[in-house]
Design goal:
Elements (H helix, E strand, L loop, with lengths): L1 H11 L3 H8 L7 H13 L15 E6 L6 H15 L3 E6 L7 H10 L4 E5 L14 H5 L4 E4 L10 E4 L1 H14 L5 E5 L5 H9 L6 E4 L4 H13 L4 E4 L2 H13 L9 E6 L12 E4 L2 H16 L8 E4 L2 E3 L11 H4 L1
Parallel strand pairs: 1-2, 1-3, 3-4, 4-5, 5-11, 6-7, 6-8, 8-9, 9-10
Antiparallel strand pairs: 10-12
Pfam family, one: LacI
Keywords: DNA-binding, Transcription, Transcription regulation
Protein name: LacI family DNA-binding transcriptional regulator
């Protein structure tokens, strides 16, 4: 018990006597100090006393689908900084392939008495995935915000980049460069953002290959598109775009002289790739801050409609796109 008091006191920046008063429900402690002690208790993984377990702390869960794509750590940085400014402590849960399932993360966050949860990609983005585990959040009336497009019937607000505008910008850019055979490297068939991108180009001429969001699977998908004769490719993420560039090079082709590639996200270091990547930028700073604003409004009791807030993307032209290669008849 003495060790626990010392650890919690150090984490909260208060005396052991203050921690003892909070845990025993005694008076003489400000609400701010009390909240700080309870948050420290949660962060350190100690159980609250029974009489305090019904109260939510100042913890907010942040669930990421992965950390390999640099766009998610970038979003996490914005969200955690914004939460800290509002007096909340983020509890990060990053999923991995074959690791802890999303359902278990939700149970863990509920056990820690979080005040709310921000999801940045998850099962909700896959139309045919299991969504029943989100019901535990609804049943608890837990404040939740979901980032990126997902299924529409969960009852939570969404913060998304406008996928239709994004793909129209990328497609229009390649067409303006003279590309007639355009390929799309998209996520799985039930991936909602990819569905939106493809739906926006209905009636236009393009080829599609589906893949998961790894660089190697993107390389295989892009190779198939190149074999089908495309000269320009639009990818559902920057990671997929880098995999597509690798595919072109393995086939002895040059980017952008032979193949133009457009990514999506404008994640960190895309100016440093070879060539620098043309991509559609997601406004991550504004999206992350908006997600926190919506969540805190819910925590503080303000009504928030379960609507989707769309943000405008921006095409960033760099060195991975160029005019379409001339046909042999035109060169001759």
């Amino acid at each position: 018990m003495t060790k626990r008091l010392a650890e919690v006191a150090k984490k909260a920046g208060v005396s052991e006597a203050t921690v003892s008063r909070v845990l025993n429900g005694r008076s003489g402690v400000s609400e701010a100090t009390r909240a700080s002690v309870l948050t420290a208790l949660d962060v350190l993984g100690y159980e609250r006393p029974t009489k305090l377990r019904g109260e939510r702390g100042r913890l907010v869960g942040l669930v990421l689908p992965e950390l390999q794509n640099p766009i998610f750590p970038a979003l996490a940085e914005v969200v955690t900084a914004s939460l800290a400014q509002r007096g909340f402590t983020p509890l990060l849960a990053a999923r991995t392939i074959g690791g802890v399932p999303e359902r278990d993360y939700i149970e863990m966050l509920l056990d820690h008495q979080v005040s709310g949860v921000v999801f940045a990609g998850g099962s909700y983005a896959l139309a045919e995935a299991e969504h029943g585990h989100y019901r535990a959040l609804t049943d608890r009336r837990m404040p939740v915000v979901m980032v990126n497009a997902g299924v529409a019937d969960l009852g939570f607000p969404h913060i998304s980049t406008d996928d239709a505008v994004a793909v129209e910008q990328a497609y229009g850019h390649l067409r303006s460069l003279g590309h007639e055979r355009i390929g799309m490297v998209m996520g799985p068939e039930d991936h909602v953002p990819s569905r939106r991108k493809l739906a926006a180009l209905e009636g236009k001429d393009f080829a599609v290959e589906r893949t998961n969001f790894s660089m190697e699977s993107a390389r295989l998908a892009a190779a198939k598109l190149i074999e089908r004769g495309v000269t320009g490719m639009i990818c559902a993420s920057d990671v997929l775009a880098l995999g597509s560039i690798r595919a072109a090079r393995r086939l002895g082709l040059d980017v952008p002289s032979d193949i133009s590639v457009v990514g999506f996200d404008d994640s960190a270091l895309m100016t440093c790739t070879d060539p620098p990547l043309t991509t559609v930028r997601q406004p991550i700073e504004m999206m992350g801050q908006a997600a926190v604003d919506l969540l805190v409004n819910q925590i503080e009791g303000s009504g928030v409609e379960p609507d989707e807030l769309l943000f405008e993307p921006e095409l960033v032209v760099r060195g991975s796109t160029a005019p379409a290669p001339q046909k042999a008849s035109q060169r001759g």
